[in-house]
Amino acid sequence: MELIITGWSPGLQAISLIDVLRANCGMGLRQAKNAVDGLLDGTEIRIPNLSDEAATILRDQVEALGAICR
């Protein structure tokens, strides 16, 4: 399964989102920061190869921080 973070809502906790991406997606600091910066500029973040359970958990975590997923 692929999780796609499509946008963000006002109050997005960008630093916390970077931490979640690093912890759960195997991204380094620079890669996670670039992904979040891209999200703020309108680029989607695609996280491939997740189990259904992992995708659900990750979606809940990033949505709690203000991200919008599909």
- Widest β-sheet, arrangement of strands: 2-1-3
**Roughly what is the average pLDDT, rounded to an integer?**
96
CATH architecture: 2-Layer Sandwich
Residues in helix, %:
40-55%
Give the low-confidence spans: none
What does the model show?
- The protein is α+β, with helices and mostly antiparallel strands and 70 residues long.
- It has a single domain, classed as 2-Layer Sandwich (Ribosomal Protein L30, Chain: A), CATH 3.30.1390.
- It is built from 3 helices and 3 strands.
- Helix 1 (14-25) packs across helix 2.
- It is globular, with a radius of gyration of 11 Å.
Concise synopsis of the structure shown:
The protein is 53% helix and 17% strand.
Provide tags for this entry.
70 residues, alpha+beta, Ribosomal Protein L30, Chain: A, three-stranded antiparallel sheet, 3 helices, 3 strands
Task: Write the topology of this structure.
Blueprint: E1 3-8, H1 14-25, H2 29-40, E2 45-47, H3 52-64, E3 67-69
